[in-house]
Specification:
By secondary structure, this protein is α/β, with parallel strands linked by helices. Helix content is about 40%, strand content about 15%. The structure holds pyridoxal-5'-phosphate.
Length: about 375
């Protein structure tokens, strides 16, 4: 099959060759269970897991014992959100989040409303920005936790996490950030940010699918969190289940690589994205979605006067991109992120998210601009 050029790194990234190389022995020769404490197969697996824990912790400036491995960010967010809620003082039953969060957060928080929690979902500006004043005025005596993403998966908007975490602390609430799209792409320092919990995902940072992590700050006051998956008491009782050793090794290796060339790669991608945006904005009726403070590699644009479905079908012939539809490109509903920013249904549907990554070249970008221009002109002429 002739595959289109990949412009969907926010959906998933390929594994780096170094990551695959590091993983392979843990499928074959060193396949042991990390909990087998009586023989070298188990010791080797456990040692590899602990090395990966250090590597992931180093990437976000945490300590190794603050990292809990999970099956991905959706599970990490469920563990963080439900785990905290289930241990909370019954009087603390108010939660705050943002309208443009990922469904892994929104649906998880909604599920707590069914269990007696009150949820405040803050709106965003037309650029998708969060208002700190609005957050400040939303705290109540009984606010337990604020959950907000560090970078939006659709627009790439970067949010003021440090300020939001400080406000939460001042109001006696915990702060959890979904940093899935930010980790490995921009510097993330949990100490400097002052966050209590942070979720990340392997397949957004050149590691395999099916692995992720939750950072849980240690120290006082101690964060009380109830395990969501119970069983053998793995991960110090916070997440039971035999550890996915190859996945975890891959996550660790990817974390090491992301840290090594973070500055260089984000600079390269920023320049490519600027080129892409400048080119696309030359097309009549093209608008950029998002604020001026965005991830270096994400470009979200809408086009007027074209049908979203036709646009996506035509563009996807040559480029793998994501649309302005909710969650999946086959959805008929406009994205909740774009509609929260005030885009009308038609414009939201006529939107493309192009997310660049390690294997994107200047030639890919030049071709994308030309091709999308042709598609738009063609669709408008029909
Ligand atoms: C911002 C954000 N949060 C959470 C998730 C869920 O991550 P995972 O696929 O690891 O469950 C995603 C995946 O698209 C995401 O983009």
């Amino acid at each position: 099959m002739d595959l289109p050029i990949y412009f969907d790194y926010n959906a998933s990234t390929p594994c780096l060759p170094e990551v695959v190389e590091a993983i392979v022995p843990y499928f074959t020769s060193s396949f042991g269970n990390a909990s087998s404490i009586h023989h070298p197969y188990g010791w080797l697996a456990e040692e590899a897991v602990e090395t990966a824990r250090e590597q992931v912790a180093t990437l976000i400036r945490a300590e190794a014992n603050e990292i809990v491995f999970t099956s991905g960010a959706t599970e990490a967010l469920n563990l963080g959100i439900k785990g905290i809620a289930q241990m909370a003082d019954p009087g603390k039953n108010h939660l705050i989040t943002i309208a443009t969060e990922h469904k892994a957060v929104l649906d998880t928080m909604e599920s707590l409303v069914d269990r007696g929690f009150e949820l405040t979902c803050l709106p965003v500006s037309a650029e998708g920005e969060i208002s700190l004043d609005l957050l400040r005025s939303s705290f109540r005596e009984n606010t337990l936790m604020v959950v907000a993403m560090m970078a939006n998966n659709e627009t790439g908007n970067l949010h003021p996490i440090k300020e939001m975490a400080a406000l939460s602390k001042a109001h006696g609430a915990l702060f959890l950030t979904d940093a899935v799209q930010a980790v490995g792409k921009v510097p993330v320092d949990v100490r400097d940010l002052g966050v209590d919990l942070l979720a990340l995902s392997g397949h957004k940072m050149y590691a395999p699918k099916g692995v992720g992590a939750l950072f849980i700050k240690k120290g006082l006051p101690k964060i009380q969190l109830k395990a969501q998956i119970t069983g053998g008491g793995h991960e110090r009782g916070r997440r039971s289940g035999t550890l996915n050793v190859p996945g975890i090794v891959g996550l660790g290796k990817a974390a090491e690589h992301c840290l090594d060339d973070l500055q260089e790669e984000s600079h390269r991608l920023f320049n490519l994205k600027k080129e892409l945006e400048n080119g696309l904005l030359q097309i009549q009726g093209c608008r950029l979605n998002g604020s001026s403070h965005r991830l270096p590699h994400v470009c979200n644009v809408s086009f007027n006067g074209v049908s979203g479905k036709s646009l996506l079908i035509r563009v996807n012939k040559k480029f793998a991109v994501s649309s302005g539809a909710a969650c999946s490109s086959i959805s008929d509903k406009p994205s909740h992120v774009l509609t929260a920013m005030g885009l009308d249904q038609r414009t939201a549907m006529a939107t493309l998210r192009l997310s660049l990554g390690r294997f994107t070249t200047a030639a890919d970008v030049a071709f994308a601009i030309e091709y999308i221009r042709e598609v738009i002109e063609d669709l408008r002429s029909i």
